[in-house]
Each structure stands twice: as structure tokens, then as C-alpha cells.
Amino acid sequence: MAVGDAGLTARIEKEASATNQLKTFLSRYFYFSMSLVFAALVILGFSRTVNAGLFHANPPRPLLLWMHGAAFSTWIVFFIAQSSLVRVHKVSVHRALGWFGAALASGMVVLGVVIAVVMTRFDIAVLHQTQPGVDSFLSIPFGDMIVFGSCVGAAIYFRKKPAYHRPLLFIATCHLMDAAVGRFDYIFNHNLFYPILDCLILLGMLRDRIVDGRVSKVYLYALPAIIVIQAFATYTWRINPPWWAAVTHAILGL
């Protein structure tokens, strides 16, 4: 029995050690690791379309699309930088750079809405795309900017409360990833980009559960609201009810 007890104790201690190592890793490196995942998704997604759709597009795309791409890319670099600064305990630099991020995010929301309208007009008037869903797709970028802008705005408000600030910025950045994962035809055609984004958000919830023993209230309040927005955006895009068709036609001047 003594040998058996010793073996059981050793196994329990080994499992406890592995659990502690995982908690330590997630506590220190989760947000930095996810920032690299975001960068990888952007590279994988946009590498499929950026050459024909922007760099060597024929006809050339509007200048605003270049600005939108630059702002989007800058946000990913910014998120990596901010996660790195926290990791190396450069909190003062992190906070100072945060105001640049606030200005960048504000510009991204405006650009996101404007470029959605500009590119839809471009697709219809210049590329002569007439298939169903071209104009109704406006609900997707509009919904994205509502989620992104709201989360970043709340993160700025709670900038002195890391327990709220970090998950809010994480959720905001997760919701930008539909532009990347939606570049894969299967994901786009089967409306899977939002479920993928939600899975990324769930990773943040899992991190909290392992590290803190509970999930942050940010996720518990934000995720249900986000899912409602996602469902509404997908419905208006795919179904295009008459009232939404009237709204998009008014916005596009059709």
C-alpha cells in the first residue's frame, strides 16, 4: 500500500505541476500568443486575395482601400506591441502608446464604414457585380464596426482596470478577423466566419477559467450581445428583407 500511495501521490503532484505550468503560461503569454495568431490569420487570409484585389488590381482600387488596409495592419502590429510591452513590464510605454491606439481605432471605425460603402458602389458600378448579396453585405462590415468600436470605447473607459481592459481589446481584435478568415471561400460561403470569431473569444474565456478560476464578466455580458449582432447582420445579408434593401439602396444612392 505504501508503494501504491507513493505512486498516486507522485501522479497527483505531476498533474498539479503540469496544471500550474499551464496556468503560468496562460497568465503570462496568452494575449501575446493570440496576437501572433491574429497576425498569422491576417497573413494567411489576405495573401489569397491581396495581389489581385489590391496590389495589381485591374481596374485599380480606390485609394481609401489602401488606407483601410494600412490601418487594419497597423492595428495588428499595435496589438502585438501592446501585448509585448505588458509582458516585459513596460506599463508606462504601454499606456502612452494606448492613446495612439485610441486614435487609430477611431479612424478605423470611420474608414470601415466609409470603405464598405465605397467598395460596394465600386463593385456594382465599376466591376458590374449584380449577384444577390452585393449590396446587402453592408450589414456585415457595419456590424463589425459596431462591435469593434463599442469594445474599444469600453476598453478606453476601463483603461485603469486591466481585468476589463484586456478582454475588451481582445474581443475587439477577434472581431476584426472575419475579414481575414472570410477570404477562404468555404468559410465565407457557409457563413462560418462568425463562429470562428466566437471560438477565438471562447479561448479568452477558457484562459480566464484556467488562470482565475472564473470567466470575466466582460465575456458574460459582451458575447451574448455580439452573437445577437452577428445573427442580425447575417440575416440581413443573406435574406435581404425589403426594409434592408431600401436602406442599402438609400445609402448607396441606387
Summary, kept brief:
The chain is mostly helical and 254 residues long. The chain has helices spanning 2-46, 50-55, 63-87, 91-125, 139-157, 162-174, 178-181, 185-189, 193-212, 217-238, 242-252.
Describe this structure as you would to a colleague.
The chain has 254 residues and is an all-alpha fold. The protein has one domain. It is built from 11 helices and no strands. It has helices at 2-46, 50-55, 63-87, 91-125, 139-157, 162-174, 178-181, 185-189, 193-212, 217-238, 242-252. The N and C termini lie far apart (83 Å).
**Unreliable runs, pLDDT <50, ≥5 residues?**
none
Distance between the termini: 83 Å
Strand proportion:
under 5%
On the 0-100 scale, what is the average pLDDT?
92
Give the helix/strand class.
mainly alpha
Number of helices: 11
Silhouette: globular
Number of domains: 1
What's the quaternary structure here?
single chain
Computed over alpha carbons, the radius of gyration is 21 Å
Write down how many β-strands occur, each being a DSSP E stretch of 2 or more residues: 0
Report the major sheet.
none
Helix content: over 70%
The string of secondary-structure elements, in order, is HHHHHHHHHHH
Can you lay out the helices and strands and say which pair or pack?
Layout: H1 2-46, H2 50-55, H3 63-87, H4 91-125, H5 139-157, H6 162-174, H7 178-181, H8 185-189, H9 193-212, H10 217-238, H11 242-252
Supply database-style keywords.
81% helix, mainly alpha, single chain, globular, 11 helices, 254 residues
